[in-house]
Structures are given as C-alpha cells and as structure tokens.
Predict the structure.
Amino acid sequence: MKTIAAVLLLACFAFGQDKAAVSAAKAACGPQDVEFEVVADDSQHPAAIPENGKALIYVVQETIGSTRFGVDGKWLGALKAETYFFSSIEPGERHLCAVSRLSLSHHLSLHDLKAEAGKTYYFVMRFAPYGPDSLALNELNSDEGKYLVGMAKLSVSHPK
C-alpha cells in the first residue's frame, strides 16, 4: 500500500511540472551551444575592485570538470577545478546560472542576487552532498570567499 501511495505521489509531481517556469529559470544561462576553452593561470593573481557604479562578483570552482557561469542570459566565462574568475555586474536583481558537464551529463544550478553598486560578492560551485550529480552554486561570506579565491588559480576562458 505504501508503494502505491509513493508512486501516485511521484506521478503527481511529474504531471505538475511548469515548463514555463523551468524555461524562465534557465533564461539566466547563456546559449546552450556555447563552449569554452579554459586554462588555469598561476602566473597572476589579480585582486579586483568594483567598477564605478557596478558590483563585483567572484566565482570559485572546487569541483572537477568544467563549468560555464552566466548572469541574466549571458555567459561571463568558464572555470575548472580549483580556479576562480571575477566580473563586474550591473546592480539590481541578477539571475546567476552555472552549468557543469561531468562525463556526458549536464548539471545546472541557479541563484538570484540583489547586487548593490560598490559591493563584492563571492560564490563557490561544488557538487552538493545530497548527490554526486548535483551542482550547487552557493554564496559565501567575504572571509571564506577571499580565502577560496586566494587558494585558487585564475581561470582564463574563451569561447571555442
């Protein structure tokens, strides 16, 4: 009886998917056909300050594989394990997207951010503890963010 109830409950979730909501959430990502070439550069370790009137975002990747990172439908760059990059972003409500390809499967993580001009934000990409295939993009406090950036190499990426 419990098995039947569980199957019915899961079936309700499957039928209840909102494709428009999924599509809107994925709009934070850039075009799916864009791939990046990523190189870890340990010869430089720049520390940025926010551009006038903009916010600054640092992204660190701890996971294996390569990950594309985008804001509001535009890819800003890509990372690989133990690398970081930074970018200026416009203040306001921003929608962040991380897409990682590990083997042949793709993993997606989304995050919203109310960016304020002059502020710096730190994010880390990790595979979540609740499953080996679950990518998590998490905001960090500045102390942990600075530490992880300091331990990582600069990611230099270019679209292929």
